[in-house]
Design a protein that fits this description.
Chain B: This is Geranylgeranyl transferase type-2 subunit alpha. The complex is a heterodimer of chains A (350) and B (336). Chain A has 350 residues and is mainly α. Chain A has a single domain, classed as Glycosyltransferase (Alpha/alpha barrel). Chain A has 14 helices and 7 strands. In chain A, helix 5 runs parallel beside helix 7 and helix 7 runs parallel beside helix 9. The two termini of chain A are 37 Å apart. By secondary structure, chain B is mainly α. In chain B, helix 2 runs antiparallel to helix 3. The longest helix of chain B has 30 residues. The radius of gyration of chain B is 28 Å and the shape is flat. Classes of the chains: A mainly alpha (350), B mainly alpha (336). The interface between A and B is large, with 76 and 70 residues. Strand 1 of chain A pairs antiparallel with strand 1 of chain B. Bound molecules: zinc ion. The site of zinc ion (ZN) has 5 residues of chain A, from helix 11.
Chain lengths: 350, 336
């Protein structure tokens, strides 16, 4: 969405801040819902519910959960319910999908409004998406991949319905996804005859979805931690940022996925945490707020959320604790009795 | 958003671009409402189908529209069509998505629709040589493999294309032989050793060939070590090569293989004394000797070697110093 033909000045690196610009990020997120005269706002309606989850989680990390109106948010979530599929779409009148359904569940839990959910129908929808191989599709038409598997396991766990899932089958599928590097691929090897999906995501995000799903299922024992954490640690580049796989550029969102997987594996210390924190902070927009994929790029709510979530794992002063498995405030997950054995860095004082 | 530079706009510039966008927003929203209203009314007409084409050209990420489009095909078009016509309709979908991918190659939903189309090609004879009831299927899947391999020729490290290629290979009515798959990864690896996806695909193919007894495991493993030796010398800074080596060592071979590989890597290290990957690998394999063959090796000597190397790694690669320190701690005391 670069505006072509308009004379503009590029942003110089010297403007970068070494402090978290919390107030600016709050107002950046608040303004997102008011950008209805932006074409980009309308072109991203298929991600609206996910965007609300990203924005709201970021605000919660910043200890400003009230910066968006609670009632309005809950009403919007409920207006995304798709009666035909029995699931939430990303926007009113859009089809129900697993990705947006997870966002809806997460938002309602964070707003303490789970009573608004038709839990039985949602559980039925999620379970209907599991394939004979154990993996999940995103909707009735969709192809399968481990990202959807993570969403399904996460959602069922949040709804307290994990015991309805054939766990063994899921774990078996994840084990078949293991690569020679101790990590995971997006689809199991070619020995399976079931329809195979493929995933447009880079490697570290796949690792995260697999590791987090196994953590929820209490089956991290199938992970070769030393090899996988070695591979993840080598994702850190000299400027402190992390990439998704070898030979690629660093990025705030991959930085988060590697970091949260490392936290779940108790290996955050294998990274240079100071440099990583500096990298994330350098990707802030010091004028308009928000965080970009890397310094000097356009910000968006996705990278703003992953940047702040990453800083929370790194113990950045003043931020609220994040649960890296569920990517929600740690206190909420703990209260629900779902906390796993991850290890974030201790919160630093200002 | 990835890789889009941030630009500052003046107030006037911002307002001018907003004015320009306004008309587009109105057009987009009006079209969206028209289509969603038809969808709500279970309208499976060709007119509705054409409208989805138009809107998907503007926004290929609108997954609800792809769903609607598939429903129109399934409920409106296919029931009144002969297998030949269904085949044709799906061929049209494949060209439509190919055009869309040329503009937006990373949009998951376009690929998703393409996979659905491929999977719904009906049974039917092919006119161009492929015999049998799966003729049509075989022709489209062959074509698809050709398309994805062309993408890999353009960028041999395109991770998405490698993944998609795996999907295509697994879905073909007549599967390609795994030996030719092994040859394919050889070609890609020899063109560029630094190719994580190709090494990964190779490890999967070999595992399967070995398990089925189609390849002599120990002979083939030796050939892989030979290939790796080449790769290490050509591109010693690529982690995928070392990862693959670690995997290969882990598939079998005993103390002899470990010792032989350690001395081969040591030779390379002598030539390139700052090679982090050589040191990392030597430590790993010496630790394997310590853990698995403690009775038959000089444990004190090996322990000291590992500790020395890990200390050098701490200085050489300070970002990961705590990892090296942790590994050293796991080895235990080296004093005699
Ligand atoms: Zn990113």
């Amino acid at each position: 969405m670069a505006s072509s033909g308009i004379s503009t000045s590029s942003v110089s690196a010297t403007e970068n801040s070494d402090k978290l610009l919390a107030d600016l990020h709050v107002s950046y997120i608040q303004k997102l819902g008011q950008s209805k005269d932006d074409l980009a706002y309308h072109l991203t309606s298929h991600l609206r519910l996910n965007a609300i989850y990203w924005g709201f989680t970021a605000l919660s990390m910043l200890n400003k959960p009230d910066a968006l109106d609670r009632e309005e948010m809950i009403e919007f979530v409920m207006s995304c319910w798709d009666e035909e599929t029995g699931a939430f779409g990303a926007h009113p009148q859009h089809d129900g999908h697993l990705l947006s359904t997870l966002s809806a569940i997460q938002i309602l839990i964070m707003q303490d409004a789970l009573d608004r959910l038709d839990v039985d129908r949602i559980v039925k929808f999620i379970l209907s998406l599991q394939q004979p191989s154990g993996v999940f599709a995103g909707d009735a038409f969709g192809e399968t991949d481990t990202r959807f598997l993570y969403c399904a396991v996460n959602a069922l766990s949040l709804l307290g319905k994990l015991d309805l899932l054939d766990r063994e089958k899921v774990v078996e599928y994840l084990q078949r996804c293991r690569n020679y590097d101790g990590g995971f691929g997006s689809v199991a090897g070619a020995e399976s005859h079931a329809a195979q999906g493929f995933l447009i995501m880079t490697f570290s995000s796949i690792v995260f979805t697999c590791v987090a799903a196994l953590a929820i299922l209490d089956r991290l024992d199938v992970v070769d931690v030393d090899t996988l954490a070695w591979w993840l640690a080598e994702r850190q580049l000299p400027n402190g940022g992390l990439n998704g796989r070898p030979e690629k550029l660093e990025d705030v969102c991959y930085s988060f996925w590697v970091l949260s997987a490392m936290s779940i594996l108790n290996k955050v210390q294998w990274l240079d945490v100071e440099k990583l924190s500096t990298f994330i902070l350098s990707a802030q927009d010091p004028e308009g707020g928000g965080i970009a994929d890397r310094p000097g790029d356009m910000v968006d709510v996705f990278h703003t959320h992953f940047g702040i979530a990453g800083l929370s794992i790194l113990g950045y002063p003043g931020l609220v604790d994040l649960d890296p498995v569920y990517c929600m405030p740690a206190s909420i997950i703990e209260k629900m009795g779902l906390k796993k054995g991850y290890k974030n860095l201790e919160r630093k004082a200002f | 958003m990835h890789g889009i530079r941030r630009v500052r706009q003046t107030q006037e510039e911002r307002q001018a671009s907003k004015r320009k966008e306004l008309a587009k927003i109105e057009e987009f929203n009006a079209l969206t409402q028209r289509i969603l209203a038809r969808k709500k009314g279970n309208d499976w007409s060709d007119e509705a189908f054409q409208l989805t084409t138009k809107l998907l050209q503007i926004n290929p990420e609108f997954y609800t529209l792809w769903n609607y489009r598939r429903n129109i095909l399934l409920k409106g078009k296919f029931p009144n069509s002969s297998p030949e016509q269904v085949h044709e309709l799906l061929e049209d979908e494949l060209s439509m998505t190919m055009t869309a991918l040329k503009v937006r190659p990373k949009v998951y939903w376009i690929w998703n629709h393409r996979m659905w189309c491929l999977e719904h090609i009906p049974k039917g004879p092919a006119s161009d040589g492929e015999p049998g009831a799966d003729g049509w299927k075989q022709v489209v899947w062959n074509k698809e493999l050709f398309v994805v391999e062309k993408m890999l020729d353009a960028d041999s490290r395109n991770f998405q294309a490698w993944n998609y290629r795996r999907f295509v290979l697994a879905s073909m009515p007549t599967p390609r032989s795994e030996s030719s798959e092994l040859a394919y990864t050889s070609k890609k690896i020899e063109a560029n050793f630094s190719n994580f996806s190709a090494w990964h695909q190779r490890s999967k193919t070999l595992t399967s060939l070995w398990a089925q007894g189609k390849l002599d495991e120990s002979k083939s493993r030796e050939a892989e070590f030979e290939l790796l030796r080449n790769a290490m010398y050509t591109d010693p800074n690529d982690q995928s090569v070392w990862m693959y080596h670690r995997w290969l060592v882990g598939t079998g071979g005993g103390k002899d293989v470990l010792e032989r590989e350690i001395s081969a890597i040591q030779e390379l290290l002598d030539e390139q004394p700052d090679s982090k990957w050589c040191m990392e690998s030597i430590v790993h394999y010496k630790r394997l000797l310590l853990n698995n063959y403690a009775k038959d090796v000089d444990t004190q000597h090996l322990t000291r070697d590992c500790k020395d190397l890990l200390e050098r790694l701490e200085t050489l690669d300070p970002m990961r110093r705590l990892r090296y320190r942790e590994l050293a701690g796991e080895i235990g005391p080296s004093t005699s």
